[in-house]
Design a protein that fits this description.
79% of the residues lie in helices and 0% in strands. 20% of the residues are buried. The N terminus and C terminus are likely disordered.
Amino acid sequence: MSNQIKNDRNKDNGDKDYHFSKGKTGRIVRWLLRIGKRPETVDETVTAPAVLTLMAFLWADKHPDCGQLPIWVYVASVAAAGTWYGLVRGGPEFIRPFFRGILTGGLTAMTLYLCLPHIAQPQEWSSISGNMIIIGMDLFFFAHALSAIAREFLLTTENQWEQGRIRRQEIFAGGINFNAWSNTYSSFSRFMSTLALNSIYSCAY
């Protein structure tokens, strides 16, 4: 038992090289390290949203007064799947999340068509499938990207943090050219004002 406790403590102390390793943030870091060691499966990111969405539509089929609940279940489940994908795999990636979102939307649409074909007209199913695929692709990708960026930030090492601090000091020491931003904004404002006046005169005459 003592060896097991020692091993657990060594695992808990393995995140001391990370900048965010103390307090509540440190718990999140340790959790991210644990889930990063396990493989992400298709069932978690593709099958689960399709099953949850099917259950929501089955419920809505028996309870017509539930409104847009099945749509929101689909949106939430795809976003959650993308978030989990980003937290486990890190990144962000580009190709695989797009295809994973397309697969999620396509599988969900096919499942609904096979189990509940009466909820839409036959000619509407192609449009429904296309919309679900596009929504799944976009939601999955952006949810994965945000969660992956958050993961990479939280798993910043002390060496990376120190290098970033030095870089930030160099940027601020060089100063920010606010005059250039002011001149750009003034030029843009004059251009928009001229464009608006020309539009007014053209409408008036």
